[in-house]
Amino acid sequence: VAALTSLFSFCVSSSVSMFLNTLTPKFYVALTGTSSLISGLILIFEWWYFRKYGTSFIEQVSVSHLRPLLGGVDSSSPSNSNTSNGEADSNRQSPLLTPAVHWTGQEPNQYTWVTGREPLTYYDMNLSAQDHQTFFTCDSDHLRPADAIMQKAWRERNPQARISAAHEALELEDCATAYILLAEEEATTIMEAERLFKQALKAGEGCYRRSQQLQHHGTQYEAQHRRDTNVLVYIKRRLAMCSRKLGRTREAVKMMRDLMKEFPLLSMFNIHENLLESLLELQNYADVQAVLAKYDDISLPKSATICYTAALLKARAVSDKFSPEAASRRGLSTAEMNAVEAIHRAVEFNPHVPKYLLEMKSLILPPEHILKRGDSEAIAYAFFHLQHWKRVEGALNLLHCTWEGTVFHEVSVYPKKELPFFILFTAGLCSFTAMLALLTHQFPELMGVFAKAFLSTLFAPLNFIMEKVESILPSSLWHQLTRI
Q1: pTM
Q2: H-type helices in 94-141, by residue range?
Q3: CB neighbour list of residue 10: distance below 8 Å, 6 or more residues apart
Q4: 88 exposed, middle or buried (CB, 10 Å; 0-12, 13-18, 19+)?
Q5: Where is this region: Disordered (predicted)?
Q6: Which residues form the domain of 460?
């Protein structure tokens, strides 16, 4: 077997040597030029795919198709996503809906009409589509024709197709989710959206009462009642936000209080954060403190709104008379120390917020989804609460003097993304092969010598093994094998 192997290696080595000796510099120019062209096309496609979808095409194909073939396990599978003892990984958080989320049909559309640019990323809109399917659909939708149409509408990517499907559903019956879609995506003003949400409320209350009577008749009716509850809460919250945006703040506060009293367990919409912002607009600081006392609890999840509103109330008590020079001479009073500690706690939770409140970084239209303790949450908070900090005399001055002394953690920065490995790899490969093609074209003889020397070095281990085999095998056996 060793003799046959050595003979095969000798034949291969001889064939390779003959092939290399027959190559001309033109071949090397064509080889490197073609490699550069192909890698350049791959680089352009990878960059376009990354800009549009936020991920690498090669990486996505590898994870989705090649890993299962090789026996790998998807890291996003349920078996791997659960941590021991039910503890969630604190370093990986799911994006949450912005509490004071703007309208997908009014403000972003107006921004697009004025600037000609899209205000929301593809990733953000995809998360919104998932939220709509979670809140507004259930397994029994196929039993009602209008709901079946809306189930397909929420999955549709084309906005005009979704709007057409909503009108088609309304031709069959009064469908609450169809009114919601039209209010979100077709209405051009807040007043028009409010009118559609009131129609949605009338239809949603009827569905909620019917499903409430049947919820104990089986799992199918229970799922339908859960869906109708989500729809009703969503509509009432949107109506409250309409009132807030139209200047009817007291009416909005009453609607939010009634909604929290009627559905105290539904905290997914973070209605208390909308209530805090509305109470701050009314400058009703006593009620703000009462809401904070209920939700600023160690057992409940924190947010930038809760932490910084608590800091604002503490700063309000001392900020109008605060002076850094006087404080350095006499020391901080008890009230000032409490305000500084509250600011430090808020900055420890989200250190990105002060730069936006102090206008050291420019504000942009907030995304529809935020990451807790990240830059996106800071943008959303400052966008809606900067006016409240400016209204309290000296609050921003106190924040400016104290926030930089906080030792804070490292958090993600939105929307900064790292380039995928395959984009960097294809860029390097394209540049390297293009340089080789240029050098081979300019110095064909010299590059030919370098290419042959490189290939000879590459095959040097094989030649070394061949020489060792020749020295070990008997010369007579080797002579007979070469004759064969």
Answers
A1: 0.61
A2: 107-115, 122-136
A3: 466
A4: exposed
A5: 74-94
A6: 2-59+425-483
